């Protein structure tokens, strides 16, 4: 056996262990007779690589490998044991080969020099495992990684029968998404059956579109598919090779390339066996991650299609040819995207299967907390704290928000106690995360705010208008961001260097770019610096209270940031001067909407309510809604949408009529937290008492209200009693209740 290769393989396996598992591994190792010569003083503090070195040096490569496999079983890592059993034994050193333990470079992702040539598929599977088994948290320090399989929490998926006009952007304002499948035909699906036929399509689909709103976990799911395939747990009878293509990487490519070049960039060593790969094209899968992030030049590329694997074409044409199946129609494609790009993508596809990510159910939210916190007691504390704060808990159906909340709570727990300030809205959660980054850890000096936060905000806003998520150094210079500024953002985990290209930068998530873009419009114009020409008026006109607009989340953040407490907190913490005119501009925009629509709020009503919910100021909301005499809110299909609607209607003091069209929904408690087999079996569940209380408040405080229409509002017996109290109130002048 080649000692260097034995060391590399063993250390790669040990790197997959969590800290607690590695500790157990070393404790059990100390009880093995074969390892009795290893000094405990050196073994106890050793990391994965040093542990592997000690094993190989004192036991020999073969015995070290056998010992490790046995210990993997003892620490309940049967997955590593099973994979290790499939490993081919490494043979004796060839003539001229290495004869020492070698250097750390032996542990790279490439095949080892001098090693016997293995089956190409096994070589590629090893490469994929090593590339995708570890992930970096968005706020990770250099070198910090977590095991993807240990952190990943299963997401709820549902088959969609696509209507491009219906498929709108649902970002962070809904409850866990299963509830809104009640209003249309849909059924649940597992990752294992994505490419399987069903009752509607007897042939397996060749294209699957996996859609999900911002922060829903699309990329993590794509990485998990790669890892599970490499580990032999997914698509084993369906695909021989699975390739991962990152659309952000494609944006950077300017030179023409061929499909062979594209595959070569995914292959771990020179000399990709292309003939073997394309011999059975129906057993190839390409995962195209982040279609919505492609730059505009990809939207409608011009030129002849790429029809041959060796033919070089501009990257835009190459990717389009791949998706449109001009190049090997038999291969399969899995595309992840935000809903906002569905209509553009739909023009490229024939008979795709559409699947939507619905996020975490309550049971999965709880599972995520316990996976994030290694300490079970801390996990229990944090989960129950969030569970008792219903709006905050509801937001955690979005995996990204769940991570933000866990990050904040973990720091608070490490500082000695849970958060004193609870968060009700999406904006509050993001502000909390931002401010938590600025709090020093115990015993460490207070970090200084980055010297040019305004440049960061103007960069985000300009990127928003130009649909740009990847920035070059010249973009940073344009906004006054020097190298020291970028370093501060990296240290504060707001703005990160792209892992693969040092000269490209991106926000840690697109929703954070939208958050900072909103902060740009919050600033006094004299403090904004170099930014986009479009002002708040243009932003609101582009938005038009449509959740399909690219500016939807930015405007919601803008409303939330104008909350007086939040604004004051930001001014004190960051030293910013907030523009006093933005609130008045928002009110003028809403008044204009009322005048153009005859004082009837119907189109975009729920979207406007979502914005008003973010600001959480009764006086402002009352003033904004005072221009509407009739309010019609439709398609309330989630608990959060009902909460938002009832919160706002109690401030409709001048409305003559209120029409609320909702749907009874299910909660996780109904089925013990288990995943329901389909929407037709979902039990009904009544709305929370707060909903009825707020409706009753609207009846008692609005003497102008004469008509209330409640369609599919499951109030329950307690809710009906509360509503009746409002009807009996002397201030209630209602004449028509339906």
Account of the protein in words:
With 738 residues, the chain is an alpha/beta fold. It folds into four domains: 3-117, Death Domain, Fas (Orthogonal Bundle), CATH 1.10.533.10; 146-359, P-loop containing nucleotide triphosphate hydrolases (Rossmann fold, 3-Layer(aba) Sandwich), CATH 3.40.50; 362-423; 597-738, no CATH class. Helices cover 44% and strands 10% of the residues. It has 32 helices and 17 strands. The strands form four sheets. Strands 4-3-9-5-8-7-6 form a seven-stranded mixed β-sheet. A five-stranded parallel β-sheet has the order 13-14-15-16-17, covered by helices on one side. Strands 10-12-11 form a three-stranded antiparallel β-sheet. Helix 32 (716-728) links the parallel strand 16 and strand 17 (736-737). Helix 4 packs across helix 5 (61-74), helix 7 runs antiparallel to helix 9 and helix 19 (426-437) packs across helix 25. The longest helix has 16 residues, at 399-414. It holds the Pfam family FISNA. One of its GO terms (cellular component) is cytoplasm. It is found in: Cytoplasm.
Please render the helix and strand layout as text.
Blueprint: H1 3-14, H2 19-29, H3 40-43, H4 48-59, H5 61-74, H6 78-86, H7 120-132, E1 134-135, E2 146-147, H8 148-151, E3 156-160, E4 187-188, E5 207-211, H9 218-230, E6 241-246, H10 247-252, H11 259-264, H12 274-278, E7 284-289, H13 315-323, E8 332-337, H14 342-346, E9 353-359, H15 362-372, H16 376-387, H17 390-395, H18 399-414, H19 426-437, H20 453-465, E10 471-472, H21 473-478, H22 483-492, E11 495-497, E12 504-507, H23 510-522, H24 536-543, H25 552-561, H26 564-574, H27 582-596, E13 600-601, H28 605-615, H29 618-625, E14 630-636, H30 639-649, E15 657-662, H31 689-701, E16 707-711, H32 716-728, E17 736-737
Parallel strand pairs: 5-8, 5-9, 6-7, 7-8, 13-14, 14-15, 15-16, 16-17
Antiparallel strand pairs: 1-2, 3-4, 3-9, 10-12, 11-12
């Amino acid at each position: 056996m080649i000692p260097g290769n034995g060391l590399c393989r063993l250390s790669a396996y040990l790197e997959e262990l969590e800290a607690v598992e590695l500790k157990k591994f070393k404790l059990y190792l100390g009880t093995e007779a074969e390892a009795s010569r290893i000094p405990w003083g050196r073994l106890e503090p050793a990391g994965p690589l040093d542990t592997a070195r000690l094993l190989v040096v004192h036991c020999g490569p073969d015995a070290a490998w056998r010992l490790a496999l046995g210990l993997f079983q003892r620490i309940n890592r049967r997955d590593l044991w099973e994979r290790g059993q499939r490993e081919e034994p490494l043979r004796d050193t060839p003539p001229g080969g290495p004869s020492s333990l070698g250097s750390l470079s032996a542990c790279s992702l490439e095949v080892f020099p001098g090693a016997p040539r293995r089956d190409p598929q096994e070589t590629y599977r090893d490469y994929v495992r090593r590339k995708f088994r570890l992930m970096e948290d968005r706020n990770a320090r250099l070198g910090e990684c977590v095991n993807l399989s240990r952190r990943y929490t299963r997401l709820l998926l549902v088959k969609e029968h696509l209507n491009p006009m219906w498929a709108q952007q649902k970002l962070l304002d809904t409850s866990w998404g299963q509830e809104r499948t009640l209003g249309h035909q849909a059924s649940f699906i597992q990752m294992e059956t994505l490419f399987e036929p069903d009752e509607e399509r007897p042939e397996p689909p060749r294209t699957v579109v996996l859609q999900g709103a911002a922060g829903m976990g699309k990329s993590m799911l794509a990485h998990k598919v790669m890892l599970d395939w490499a580990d032999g747990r997914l698509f084993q009878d369906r695909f021989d090779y699975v390739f991962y293509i990152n659309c952000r990487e494609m944006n950077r490519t300017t030179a023409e390339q061929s499909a062979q070049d594209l595959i070569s960039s995914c292959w771990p060593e020179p000399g990709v066996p292309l003939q073997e790969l394309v011999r059975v094209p129906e057993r190839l899968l390409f995962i195209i991650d982040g279609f919505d992030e492609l730059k505009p030049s990809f939207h409608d590329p011009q030129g002849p299609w790429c029809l041959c694997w060796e033919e070089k074409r501009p990257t835009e044409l190459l990717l389009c040819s791949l998706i449109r199946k001009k190049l090997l129609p038999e291969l399969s494609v899995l595309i992840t995207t935000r809903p906002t790009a569905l209509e553009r993508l739909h023009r490229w596809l024939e008979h795709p299967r559409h699947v939507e990510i619905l996020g975490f159910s309550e049971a999965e939210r709880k599972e995520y907390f316990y996976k994030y916190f290694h300490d079970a007691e801390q996990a229990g504390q944090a989960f129950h704290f969030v569970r008792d704060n219903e709006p905050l808990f509801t937001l955690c159906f979005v995996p990204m928000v769940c991570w933000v909340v866990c990050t904040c709570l973990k720091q608070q727990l490490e500082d000695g106690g849970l958060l004193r300030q609870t968060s009700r809205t999406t904006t509050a959660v993001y502000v909390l995360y931002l401010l938590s980054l600025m709090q020093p850890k115990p015993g460490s000096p207070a970090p200084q705010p980055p010297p040019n936060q305004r440049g960061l905000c103007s960069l985000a806003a300009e990127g928003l208008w130009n649909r740009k998520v990847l920035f070059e150094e010249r973009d940073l210079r344009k906004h006054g961001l020097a190298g020291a500024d970028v370093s501060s953002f990296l240290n504060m985990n707001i703005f990160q260097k792209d892992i693969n290209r040092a000269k490209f930068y991106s926000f840690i998530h697109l929703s954070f770019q939208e958050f900072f873009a909103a902060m740009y419009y919050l600033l006094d114009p004299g403090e904004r610096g170099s930014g986009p020409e479009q002002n708040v008026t243009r932003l609101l006109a582009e938005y038009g209270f449509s959740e399909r607009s690219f500016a939807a989340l930015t405007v919601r953040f803008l409303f939330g940031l104008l909350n007086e407490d939040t604004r004051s907190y930001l001014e004190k913490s960051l030293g910013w001067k907030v523009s006093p005119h933005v609130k008045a501009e928002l009110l003028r925009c809403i008044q204009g909407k009322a005048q153009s629509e005859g004082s009837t709020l119907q189109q975009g009503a729920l979207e406007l309510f979502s914005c008003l919910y973010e600001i959480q100021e009764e006086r402002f909301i009352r003033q904004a809604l005072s221009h509407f005499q009739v309010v019609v809110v439709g398609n309330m299909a989630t608990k959060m949408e009902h909460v938002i609607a009832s919160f706002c209607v109690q401030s409709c003091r001048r409305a003559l009529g209120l029409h609320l069209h909702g749907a009874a929904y299910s909660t996780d408690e109904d089925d013990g937290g288990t995943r329901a087999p389909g929407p037709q079996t979902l039990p009904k569940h009544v709305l929370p008492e707060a909903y009825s209380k707020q409706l009753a408040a609207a009846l008692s405080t609005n003497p102008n209200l004469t008509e209330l229409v409640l369609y599919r509002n499951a109030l329950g017996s307690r809710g009906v009693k509360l509503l009746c109290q409002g009807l009996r109130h002397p201030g209630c002048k209602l004449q028509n209740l339906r």
